[in-house]
Design a protein that fits this description.
single chain; about 475 residues; alpha+beta; Protein Transport Mog1p, Chain A; 2 domains; three-stranded mixed sheet; 16 helices
């Protein structure tokens, strides 16, 4: 196979190695199963990779609602609440999928201009949005944008990335309190709005929600530019009141231009009706209400103690071996290394080889990590490994592939890829060797990790571990 030098993505949580490893395994796994949970009735719109099923989105959303409504002041006005709820449910009829979610639309008694959506169809719109909107089409645009986040499953997409980031090191409890749908919500304690992984949307997610919101406005018969125009107005007219909105909803570049280009692909222009007496009545009612009391900032979660980066290199690997048995494989490892098991992976490292970096994220600088990537019909080992590499290429400019060659491990075809990257240890490079082993049940991926200057000290151990690997 021709050797190439390419750039690879940054793996999403903490260290360069750890982030790389976990997002790599996660992304590769999903790429091999990318048909799951797609929106069915509008092929243009496809949710991203996701570890959760749609039913789990609902579970996560319900648990999040129970926590978040302890922190936010909900509006207690039946007329306005009913208007927003009716409008929201009417808009859902034009959503591209997941209409069966238990959709709820509530108004937050805050004049800050913001809105947010939780997985499973739980949407909150601040009073300030209704007050700032000029007509119903603009309010409908904001709500449709939030519906877009729900039907594209952006919240659990983000949670999936974070879970795999923790999972490959067996430290899911550090973020999710044990993993799984219920565990995901364990992290939404104090300071949910400021800290929840469910609300950390990327510009790409914002652009996708813009398209869905625009599509819904067009189908409903509103001016499809209303949402993007309103967002543009907000940033210029209400800069102080929209700080949180644009923090939660990072503004894509050329937003209005992108939306206009998308509108051109929707079809012939429709006659639009952008306002209703019901909207103006609700807005007038809100403007006549007393200003809401200023709320106190929510308390921030207490950081958990965790090992910090080692001041010196760990003890060299012991020549005595222990054995770890996983699902369909076993491997021997140095007696003085520790095994940390995640829900779908295992990391084996010396004391101090896994730690929390200065940015608060977990990092692995020494040792090995293993994960099985689900099989995909008709996909070769090279293709599967190539998908892994492509997934890295998106956000890890410091990493490069040095060499790739075929061989055999445990009597099976294997592909060894040698990689160089920045180490989580300040000022150092690291050497990575990714070994992907062919197996009908799914590729077994093994990643060996060490700072580049110490690779020679660890190479015999890595070779012995690989030689001991049995896949059955």
């Amino acid at each position: 196979m021709k050797q190439t030098i390419v750039r690879i993505t940054k793996w999403t949580r903490g260290s360069k190695t750890f982030r790389q490893l976990t997002t790599l395994f996660f992304t590769a796994s999903v790429l091999l199963n990318s048909a799951a949970y797609a929106v069915q009735d509008t092929p243009r719109f496809k949710p991203g990779f996701n570890l959760y099923k749609p039913a789990q989105d609902i579970e996560i959303g319900k648990q999040s609602v129970a926590q978040i409504e302890k922190e936010i002041p909900l509006l207690k006005d039946a007329a306005v609440e009913n208007y927003v709820s009716i409008l929201g449910h009417h808009l859902v009829e034009y959503a591209p999928g997941y209409k069966e979610y238990p959709w709820t639309f509530k108004v937050v008694n805050s004049q800050d201009i913001n809105a947010f959506a939780l997985p499973g169809g739980f949407i909150y719109v601040n009073r300030g949005v209704v007050e700032a909107a000029e007509n119903e089409a603009q309010l409908a645009g904001v709500i449709s944008h939030e519906i877009g986040h729900v039907v594209m499953r952006h919240g659990t997409h983000q949670a999936s990335q974070a879970q795999l980031g923790q999972g490959a090191l067996g430290v899911l409890g550090g973020l999710f309190g044990g993993g799984g749908a219920a565990g995901t919500v364990a992290q939404v304690g104090a300071g949910f709005l400021a800290n929840s992984v469910l609300l950390k949307n990327s510009r790409g997610a914002e652009s996708q929600s813009d398209e869905i919101g625009t599509y819904m406005l067009y189908e409903r018969g509103y001016d499809p530019t209303s949402m993007a125009v309103f967002f543009d107005i907000l940033g210029k007219k209400y800069p102080q009141r929209t700080v949180q909105f644009f923090s939660d909803h990072p503004n894509p570049e050329n937003r209005v231009k992108r939306v206009n280009n998308f509108i051109a692909s929707l079809g012939p222009a429709k006659a639009t009706h952008n306002d209703t007496a019901e909207f103006q009545s609700a807005k007038k009612r809100l403007l006549a209400m007393p200003a809401p009391a200023k709320s106190q900032p929510a308390a921030q979660p207490t950081a958990k103690t965790a090992p910090s980066a080692p001041a010196a290199s760990p003890a060299l690997p012991s020549s005595r071996r222990l054995q770890f048995k996983g699902e369909g494989f076993s491997i021997q490892y140095p007696e003085n290394w520790e095994v940390q098991k995640g829900e779908s992976s295992v990391s084996i490292a010396p004391a101090g080889g896994i730690f929390r970096g200065d940015d608060g994220n977990w990092a692995q600088a020494y040792g090995a990590s293993l994960m099985r990537i689900p099989a995909a019909q008709g996909r070769s080992l090279e293709d599967a490994t190539g998908e892994i590499i492509k997934s890295w290429q998106r956000s890890n400019p410091a990493m490069r592939v040095l060499q790739q060659k075929r061989g055999k491990v445990s009597g099976r075809v294997a592909l060894s890829t040698t990689i160089e990257n920045d180490s989580p240890l300040a000022g150092q490079k690291e050497s990575l060797v990714l070994v992907s082993v062919d197996d009908p049940r799914g590729v077994l991926a093994v990643l060996f990790i060490t700072p580049k200057p110490e690779y020679k000290n660890y190479q015999p151990t890595f070779s012995a571990m690989l030689k001991s690997l049995e896949v059955y």
